[in-house]
Predict the structure.
Amino acid sequence: MNINKTALLLLVAAAMLTGCSRTEETTPQRKDVVDVVFASGSIIMEKNYLITAQAEGILAESYVTEGDSVNTNELLFRIQNESQEAMVASAAAGYRYAESNTKNSSSVWQKLKQQHIQLSNQLFSDSVQYMRYKTLYASKAVSKAEFDKAELTYTNRKADLKSLELTMSDTKKMLDIESLNAKATYLTQQNNNEQYILKAKYSGIVLSSPKIPGELVKRGETIAQIGSGKYLAKLLISENDINRIGIAQQVEIELNTSKNRAYGAVITKIYPAFDAAEQSFIAEAEFVEDTPDLRVGTQLQANIVVGESKNALVIPAKYLQPNNKVMLAKSNQEIAVTTGIITPEWIEVKAGLTENNIIKLKKDGSKKKK
């Protein structure tokens, strides 16, 4: 019985020693490997813009709510503006009056035209009288004083008519200028009034609308956020990886709202500058397959394919030693290899090994004696 126990202990000890010096071996194999860059991010829309107040006042009307679809130039909000509307009405009335004065049918022009007709008739009469007195004076039928009086009356009438015509010309210019000024005032007031009426720039969806009717809004304050166009993935790229990212690279995206489901996308835009707020470089990716129920702001994780090698010669990652070396099983010799794509599981070997090589990984579990 004691002999059996001793033999059993020896067998266990031998097994433990064998396990401590166990050597793992493998040979390179052929696989398709993919090199990816990880990125976090969120869902955005192609055109994302804010509706901001251009004037201060009470929000009188809100014609949309969050989630509503809107069309280009659709009226969304109106800020209370009774005084401004009165100014628009006053400016419009002034413009209509000034415009009417430029027409031939206006009272101003009718009065001047009537004066012109009267002076023209008087000039004709005075002209006839002057020619008559001129003939009579030549035949000594009237005195020089009578002739001079007729001539003076005729001359003065001509001067009066010419002065009236100049007045009419100046009046027309003045009325035209007044009309233009009145129009400019009217357009200015209309433009000011537009600041109280907020419309959609593009067709889209109301993403948020923080203000409700009755609240005070200040100039420059956001009243709504509108999203328009396609849904895109906004990707945050680290400084170490940005130089590996390019247009048209394939992306696999997993949304936090649908875990364990990957959606295909492609890089369509890379922002040229580092984003200080995000502390990352930013790229955009467009989905290439149906992505139902997307919502702006949904968080995501993405793998950007930056390299791919078909039928590559690979070894398990744990067999690669420091300085890109591996150990040959038969000779215990360490040799250097040239690596390509590196993943957490596999190392692509471009040079230094063949499929016939056997490499090993020795796990030494024994402790050195002090």
